[in-house]
Specification:
By secondary structure, this protein is largely without helices or strands. It has 3 domains: 52 residues, no CATH class; 35 residues, no CATH class; 117 residues, Cytochrome C3, CATH 3.90.10. 12% of the residues lie in helices and 9% in strands. The strands form 2 sheets. A 3-stranded antiparallel beta sheet has the order 1-2-3, with no helix packed on it. A two-stranded antiparallel sheet has the order 4-5. The longest helix has 6 residues. It is extended. The N and C termini lie far apart (63 Å). The chain binds heme C (3 copies). One heme C binds next to strand 4 and helix 3.
Length: 232
Amino acid sequence: MSPAVSGPACSQGYVEIQSGGVDDMPLDYAPEYQPVNEVAPPENEVIRVAQVSGANEFNRNLKKDKMKNAPPPEDGIHDPDNEGTFVLQPPLEAYEGLPPSEFGNYVDWVKAIDEEKINPRWDRVDSSEEPFVMDMDIVREVKASVPDVVFPHRQHTEWLSCSNCHPAIFIPQKGANQINMSAILLGQKCGVCHGKVSFPITTKSCKKCHSKPKPADWQPPLSEATLKNPWR
Ligand code: HEC
Ligand code: HEC
Ligand code: HEC
């Protein structure tokens, strides 16, 4: 007999299974085990089993926040049963007066540094230590019709030392690294940080990275198959 399953198949929630429908299993692999009858659910009792989530549920970045920058006990990240959670400063209070953005935690952190609204310490111990800022843009020409990607070293080296990226994430040589959106969305390459500690990949943030318009005479590159096609 198979258990009767009811409830809407594709919606969130629970599936109800009628108990008492499964035959007793032979227990010769564990002869000392005695089933405890009092604990067994009575016939026809409804067991509630959590429904498998929808395809995109696992990705935190694809989920709409109920509230922007919720206080720690309500943000779904910090433990509301831990007293320490209530000691933390709520982000809305901490971010007051900082330049806004449309994604991530809704602060434009690069602008915040440029406008000297914040002055993050470069060295945890020595407050006089200065960052080694390097102003060098790397343009990555994208084969697709989206604007090309400009990777700016200046904005990154104001927060990060070279060793955060070189050589573990990127070989320091223009074009030496294979980068694509799938890798980024899976948390590799730029996605090691973007979507975790720096602005995420959303439909509103594409142009932050894809910032260099294609030349007016740009044509999509032809594939190997087309180039080698003898009938061309
Ligand atoms: C946030 C990550 C990141 C940080 C931090 C970073 N870089 Fe890079 N760097 C890159 C990327 C991405 C490229 C481009 C690689 C490519 O095109 O394949 C690159 C390229 C380079 C190149 C090659 C340039 C060329 O024309 O071939 C050099 C040299 C370099 N970085 C030096 C540095 C130095 C020095 C620092 C520290 C002051 C630094 N980088 C900090 C990500 C970073
Ligand atoms: C954090 C920076 C960043 C953001 C944000 C970003 N991209 Fe990309 N994107 C890249 C890089 C880097 C590449 C690889 C470029 C190359 O070929 O060297 C890329 C490549 C692409 C490609 C070419 C195909 C591929 O996968 O390589 C497409 C199409 C694309 N991006 C679309 C988008 C769209 C649409 C968005 C917004 C939803 C977006 N990107 C947001 C960095 C970014
Ligand atoms: C080691 C972490 C790290 C990696 C890897 C990384 N970034 Fe960033 N990126 C940051 C941080 C931190 C900021 C500044 C905070 C913010 O804007 O969220 C930033 C900001 C930016 C900005 C915003 C500049 C501005 O003027 O507002 C762009 C564009 C950008 N990153 C592109 C890229 C691209 C493209 C890659 C991959 C080739 C990449 N980043 C890889 C950490 C990283």
